[in-house]
Amino acid sequence: MKITIVSGSQRGQSQSLNVANYLQKLASSYFDDTTVLDLHQLNLPFWNEGVWQGSEEWDCWKPIAQTLKQSDAFIFITPEWHGMATPALKNFLMLTSDDELAHKAALLVSVSASINGVYPISELRLTGNKNNHVCFLPDHLIFRNCENTLTADHECTDQQLHERSQYTMDLLAAYANALAPIHRDMVNAGKAFRYGM
């Protein structure tokens, strides 16, 4: 199985990328192929209709979309900025479609420099899957006090959080396996209803 991990921070060398690298190490026990997409590095344009029409501006999106299509599961990581998910991650989710994500498992993760981190999870659960039909796990992870929680070598210093992260990765792999036939059988059947009600 293949997993794509998206670090949604717009900052270089962010704590979100540190979390992505930590989770990639955990994911390698469950997934044969792990990819980290750093939205700071990708620096995608803001969504516009050209992405639907295949305009030259969106040539950069084609290999990303292909990576997503080939993925069985996803992890979306966002720092909490002003109680919100980042514009980069929201833009990324707007660019995705049911072709890439529908009926596949996704874990939501937020990162906070303090004790917060709940609001971005709620925001993404509300709108992050409307048109792409990705299936968010009922569980999520929040890396609070992130500068003290993870080392520069992507090791978790909080044993309870580490154990919870391992369990959640196990859960994500189980959902990815269970949802594979649903994606296969239903993604085309749902084309007539791809924009919800």
CATH class: Alpha Beta
The helix content, as a percent range, equals 40-55%
- Rg for CA atoms: 16 Å
Kindly give the count of domains.
1
CATH architecture identity:
3-Layer(aba) Sandwich
Stated plainly, the CATH topology is called Rossmann fold
Question: Sheet with the most strands?
Answer: 5 strands, parallel
**What would the average pLDDT be, to the nearest integer?**
95
C-alpha termini separation = 32 Å
The tally of strands reads 5
| Order of neighbouring strands in the sheet with most strands | 2-1-3-4-5
Low-confidence stretches: none
Describe this structure in words.
Keywords: Flavoprotein, FMN. This is NAD(P)H-dependent oxidoreductase. Residues 1-140 form the NADPH-dependent FMN reductase-like domain. InterPro entries: Flavoprotein-like_sf (IPR029039), FMN_Rdtase-like_dom (IPR005025), NAD(P)H-dep_reductase (IPR050712). GO terms for molecular function: FMN binding; oxidoreductase activity. With 197 residues, the protein is an alpha/beta fold. The protein has one domain (2-190): Rossmann fold (3-Layer(aba) Sandwich), CATH 3.40.50. 44% of the residues lie in helices and 18% in strands. The chain is built from nine helices and five strands. The chain has helices spanning 15-27, 39-42, 50-53, 61-70, 87-95, 98-101, 118-127, 146-149, 159-186, and strands spanning 2-7, 33-38, 73-79, 105-111, 135-143. It has a five-stranded parallel beta sheet, with helices on both faces. The radius of gyration is 16 Å and the shape is globular. The model has no long low-confidence stretch (mean pLDDT 95).
